[in-house]
Amino acid sequence: MDQDITLDLQRAARLGFDEAIYCSGKTVGHISRILDQAQDKALPLLLTRLHQTQFTELPEHHRRAIDFEPVSRTGFFGAPRPLQGEPRIAVVTAGTSDVFVSREAARTLRYYGMPNVEITDVGVAGLWRLLARLDEIRHMPVVIVVAGMDAALPTVLGGLYPGALIAVPTSVGYGVASGGQAALHSMLSSCVPGVAVMNIDNGYGAACAALRIVRAFSQQAEAPKKSS
Amino acid sequence: MDQDITLDLQRAARLGFDEAIYCSGKTVGHISRILDQAQDKALPLLLTRLHQTQFTELPEHHRRAIDFEPVSRTGFFGAPRPLQGEPRIAVVTAGTSDVFVSREAARTLRYYGMPNVEITDVGVAGLWRLLARLDEIRHMPVVIVVAGMDAALPTVLGGLYPGALIAVPTSVGYGVASGGQAALHSMLSSCVPGVAVMNIDNGYGAACAALRIVRAFSQQAEAPKKSS
Amino acid sequence: MDQDITLDLQRAARLGFDEAIYCSGKTVGHISRILDQAQDKALPLLLTRLHQTQFTELPEHHRRAIDFEPVSRTGFFGAPRPLQGEPRIAVVTAGTSDVFVSREAARTLRYYGMPNVEITDVGVAGLWRLLARLDEIRHMPVVIVVAGMDAALPTVLGGLYPGALIAVPTSVGYGVASGGQAALHSMLSSCVPGVAVMNIDNGYGAACAALRIVRAFSQQAEAPKKSS
Amino acid sequence: MDQDITLDLQRAARLGFDEAIYCSGKTVGHISRILDQAQDKALPLLLTRLHQTQFTELPEHHRRAIDFEPVSRTGFFGAPRPLQGEPRIAVVTAGTSDVFVSREAARTLRYYGMPNVEITDVGVAGLWRLLARLDEIRHMPVVIVVAGMDAALPTVLGGLYPGALIAVPTSVGYGVASGGQAALHSMLSSCVPGVAVMNIDNGYGAACAALRIVRAFSQQAEAPKKSS
Amino acid sequence: MDQDITLDLQRAARLGFDEAIYCSGKTVGHISRILDQAQDKALPLLLTRLHQTQFTELPEHHRRAIDFEPVSRTGFFGAPRPLQGEPRIAVVTAGTSDVFVSREAARTLRYYGMPNVEITDVGVAGLWRLLARLDEIRHMPVVIVVAGMDAALPTVLGGLYPGALIAVPTSVGYGVASGGQAALHSMLSSCVPGVAVMNIDNGYGAACAALRIVRAFSQQAEAPKKSS
Amino acid sequence: MDQDITLDLQRAARLGFDEAIYCSGKTVGHISRILDQAQDKALPLLLTRLHQTQFTELPEHHRRAIDFEPVSRTGFFGAPRPLQGEPRIAVVTAGTSDVFVSREAARTLRYYGMPNVEITDVGVAGLWRLLARLDEIRHMPVVIVVAGMDAALPTVLGGLYPGALIAVPTSVGYGVASGGQAALHSMLSSCVPGVAVMNIDNGYGAACAALRIVRAFSQQAEAPKKSS
Amino acid sequence: MDQDITLDLQRAARLGFDEAIYCSGKTVGHISRILDQAQDKALPLLLTRLHQTQFTELPEHHRRAIDFEPVSRTGFFGAPRPLQGEPRIAVVTAGTSDVFVSREAARTLRYYGMPNVEITDVGVAGLWRLLARLDEIRHMPVVIVVAGMDAALPTVLGGLYPGALIAVPTSVGYGVASGGQAALHSMLSSCVPGVAVMNIDNGYGAACAALRIVRAFSQQAEAPKKSS
Amino acid sequence: MDQDITLDLQRAARLGFDEAIYCSGKTVGHISRILDQAQDKALPLLLTRLHQTQFTELPEHHRRAIDFEPVSRTGFFGAPRPLQGEPRIAVVTAGTSDVFVSREAARTLRYYGMPNVEITDVGVAGLWRLLARLDEIRHMPVVIVVAGMDAALPTVLGGLYPGALIAVPTSVGYGVASGGQAALHSMLSSCVPGVAVMNIDNGYGAACAALRIVRAFSQQAEAPKKSS
């Protein structure tokens, strides 16, 4: 299937996003061939949903070339962009079970050189945990908020914080919460105006949405527009 | 269809609940025949989902015999039970659009002589509204909490209040919130332990659940058990 | 039910959003009482989902005080904010049937004094229609894209435009498209990174999300943060 | 991910509930670190959804410190509260396949020192099995009723028993019963007034709801209210 | 559209069922043309889902030729078959709201000359109501049981009655019961072996299933088999 | 969990059905204890959904006592009833993939001594296969028809066969057919009057429904009615 | 909203399809303005889902310019294309209730000058009705098959007919058939290879699919390809 | 279960399709017996959904007789038909993850001797990839288009290409895209007229639909019609 792989080399110029390789469901051989091609062209890659077992079975020279983080199941192939400026994005998480998603968002931001702050375990079942971190959150123009189950966090936060708010439902939970539909629908139905929502477990996409926002209002954003 | 109507006369003795007539979908003629029968037997009735137009089209002697409240769409046919003691149940509502459900709960409690406190419009999108009423709520052993859309209120309240908590989702909203499934699933998935949930818009049932609880721990509750 | 109405007067200070009155399902009497209260306190209000028939049945003095627009079903009660600066938000619509949603977004932006550009009928079934407007769109840091049915527009646009992208599914269509679930799921599953999604038909919310973004990166945004 | 774990130490004081660790989906390493932290602070923990294989793979010193029960998949880390008074809660189960849920409820009650009676295999397909135990059930102010598939038990029981009734659907069954939605919807639609419902398989939550009720009407309940 | 109507004249010979005209959604003109054709050929017809308003708007000569029953919304066009023998089918209904379906079944049986017994309002929320009629029910080889909402009746009855049992869910109820899916799934998931289920509100189909059974074991059933 | 097992010894007398043990999800130890109890009381048992691996892991003395059939995953513990009379039930199957369900029905009938005819692979995609077997089918008063995917077989057969017709959807297929919902809904919506439907994959239940029918019209059926 | 209407004038050249105006949900004023524009440019239009009441309320000069057919709810504005050659497409319908969809397909074909044969009321519940028309059907290279409820017709037909087969589910029916999902899923799951499916009630789309096929294999089809 | 296997030998003559063996869920023993029967009768077979592990476990003489392709999971047992003429079908795929479906379509076409062109990885997130291949695609009278997630490709392609268009949704993706429902609904709701849709992942069926079309307009198609 080698001929099927067409790396999207112009994406960075056009949108400011490198090719991201979604590894779930791909064989180790398939991933390995993609890495070979990227290596030949000296292209950096962001690997998402790369399971520990997939990573472990990669050839050693690929394993060594990847900065792998198991909780988020992300890998950096090639050096990530250098960090630029102060953090402008907070990644806020309701429970520790949601960290696999929020870490994916944080790692994606790191890959693109965007500093960010992770604030974990501030679900509103224990309200004071959120209130204790509110000042820190309110300094950021963009917040990614990650929650599963009843997903009450974006509504409470959205009523206290005036900036850009991107909500990511997670598939955590059982019964009617299973698979994340309850959290997704809760976020889409938020009583607070202006909560924008991503697909279930899509930490990568949330980071990209945050990048689109921050770049659109910074010098960095102008470059890709001109060059495309 | 006269012969189809069998009023459940033993229910009060057995469970402590009178017959409740769910009027939605019933013709005015059908409701009127039920009232005739109840009148003959001097039975009190609680009418639920009695729409204004149904009420208006009832024969005048029935209309005059009913204490009708249009927001909750409830009617008392016959005198309600006398109020007994201090309020032990709070009915807490997220938004003004949910009042048609919370009022149904409050009216049902009133019908059975159970004093209660209505606290409206304390949705967590404006968190301080809830916090301002928290002391009042915490004096009650039982709280009925009514919310639609993302239904974040039961989770926030359930993390601050240790007593019995009965949540009622409402069908308010549009898109994925339409019909109340988002609110129902949010409540069932609450991160807070011990939130018990009713069917969508079932304010009547929530009141009955609260009555079951309060009576089970009071003298009043013993009577029906013995007599059944 | 007068006592149920609690206008959220602090919302503007805290979040920069006035109270918005969702009129669908409210009686004309209920809306009228809200307007009376707002008038007493000299508060401006944004009315959403105000159907033509509701508007027509309002008392004349209220009707005259409202700037009503029937396609979007929005009304401005009180003067909208003065327009500030150049347009930074484009509202892009796939088909003419989706205009009831995109106009709601555009009117909400107008209410808050945010100039914007409406670009209608550029669905990708006729691809050149979008390409012809692309340069215009790319000058905006934020785009709201409104589409129903298969909702292919956000994906095509998101692959050509690097800025912030807020997608709103509409309930237009029949069969599996009916109610907007197909469009919603299509948008959440977009192959393009960073598309953030609102509830079905939620043009108002999309405008608020865009306002959160633009304000977070402008002087105007700092004020509410300090004062809250 | 060590830094992600924040044990909610104030929960006991505020709500009367210790931290419960939901183990499903957590690695053994993650669970082990939580136990280490709890041990350091001499905190008791309730472990739920702890699968036999997870338990078996825990370090020996943790295994020995846990009172593990495999059917309910619960573990007590630290001594449970001493039993107080006579049983006031019955846990009634329709079929033997539902016992994994009812035992979770019973074990949670035991953890908090609340004596209870388990009544198993009284599904209404064999009606006399329920009738034979009815007197025993009716002595309890609170009943937790656990059933899967058509979940007819809460309706039949609710028509015979006047006390507080908490229903828990189970995921037992195949075809349309698979996953527990049929049982959940059946319980929410019960013809009997006042049946309150938990999420599918949520035996832990049902026990907490029962605890909220019993404590709200006993001395024990006052303490947390005062101290929070 | 006259040419579109092709009355299935051989159905009676082949299956023992006349053509049944499902009137919901048909215009009065369309129904009237069907009746004209049937009159020309001296064919009897069973009309189902014939709403009162449709009946009222039919030409007078058609109205007079129809034995109309408004609760079941059925009409006999032409004389029904003469009643044959003792009742062998009971039509048992949970609540008075379900009678529009059970009456449709009873009327269909009457149309085909099959005597039957209607037993109404024996839902298991009041268990003794069913037990009081059990002896009567058990004399019948076939029972049609009609119930909405949680549909517990077929399970309780199926555990007490050994004969053929056909269950019909109804669309009665609100929230998760709305439309009849909860009742349908409850019946399909019954814990009792051998409950066969019809589509929601399909009283006509239930009667036909009962007719198939009774005829298959009687002389009457042999005739159509031979002649087809 | 030994105490949880309560064999329903009166079921045979009351309904004519022995206890059936649904083995899916039960541990081998649990099944083994049930068999021990049955052995002690000399009770015959029907085991359903007994997977090959479960059977293989049973103690040898239990394995030898069970007549196991792997396709249907059924086991007879104790001698089945002697066969009585001529076959009156046909079990008709659309495709070979559906045989795991139809064989379960046939084996259940065999267990109860009811002779039956299996007719396999007559799906209507190849219409002549059904027509070739039609005479054979029409001699039977009861037909169980098993089909997955589009489940067109019951409709075609139901238009050609006047007797009792019990349809069983199967979970065979992928995409929208996956899990059997498409087949279930197709059967419930059949254009042919009088098709009664079972839960997905419920071959056991279909056999019980057929047994209820046949017994209700034979001497054999009277016995349980009298003795209960 | 005049400025929102952009007639797609190049569609005919590019794809061979004129603009089709979907009238459902459009106001009469909106439709009228579209007709004005088309008249100015001497463009023919196909109007779909034009309800009788909408047609009746149009200005008289528009009404007279439209060839309206009420069953299909279609209108030809401007002369349809002249009919070309022999019929190559059959439109086959299961029941008379499905004719509103099949007629829409037939009318769309007529609009584009494609002769076709309508074969109505050949649902497989009466199998011989289909078999009687089979020879006629098999002469056509393309068949559109329209069916609701269980939608067994495409499977039976697809097993007898080797040509191109386009299936259209209809929203006819009640209970689980309501809205057409059962028919849609049945068609997508057909046991017969090569059945292609349209959205529910999409007769217009089915005709366009048939036109795409026939034109791709005829001279007529080459023209648009060259000119675009 | 040997007797259950009935190879449909007349299918080739009637429809022009050989028997296709769907291997998913079949045991290796079952597949092996089918191959034995086919070998005895010198019948060619197309094996679909034959997983690598199933193939590997087949007896060696069967393995050697099969032309197996692992990505599509298809096997040719017996020689495929000789290729005839120029390619008339393009198989166009949105992403590399969808190739398992498009390759199944291409392999099915190859089996029947129908040359075709595979065009991979032209999803519209990178629009120029599609435009670069458009001329090649437009030479084909039939296009099969395979896409998952938001499935925007058929709409964009259908607006540029006038020929026959068969769309296949894939089960690729997570969250709301999981299982392929989002892609299916997107395709059925396409804004472009005349897109015909297959079941999720049904590459085999798409190829058969394309074969039905091409054969219906070629000499090859006439043969089966005459001989059946």
What do these coordinates show?
The structure is a homooctamer of 228-residue chains. With 228 residues, the first copy, chain A, is α/β, with parallel strands linked by helices. The first copy, chain A, folds into two domains: 67 residues; 128 residues, Rossmann fold (3-Layer(aba) Sandwich), CATH 3.40.50.1970. Helix content of chain A is 40%, strand content 17%. Chain A has a five-stranded parallel beta sheet. In chain A, strands 1-2-4-3 form a four-stranded mixed beta sheet, with helices on both faces. The relative contact order of chain A is 0.13.
**Number of E-type strands of chain A:** 9
Distance between the termini of chain A: 30 Å
The CATH architecture of the largest domain in chain A comes to 3-Layer(aba) Sandwich
Largest interface: B-D, 42 and 42 residues
Order of helices and strands of chain A: HEHEHHEEEHEHHEHEHEHH
Structural class assignment of chain A: alpha/beta
Q: What is the helix content of chain A?
A: 25-40%
Oligomeric state, counting identical vs distinct chains: homooctamer
Write down the CATH class of the largest domain in chain A: Alpha Beta
How would you write the strand order of the largest sheet of chain A?
A: 6-5-7-8-9
What key attributes describe this structure?
five-stranded parallel beta sheet, alpha/beta, 228 residues, Rossmann fold, homooctamer
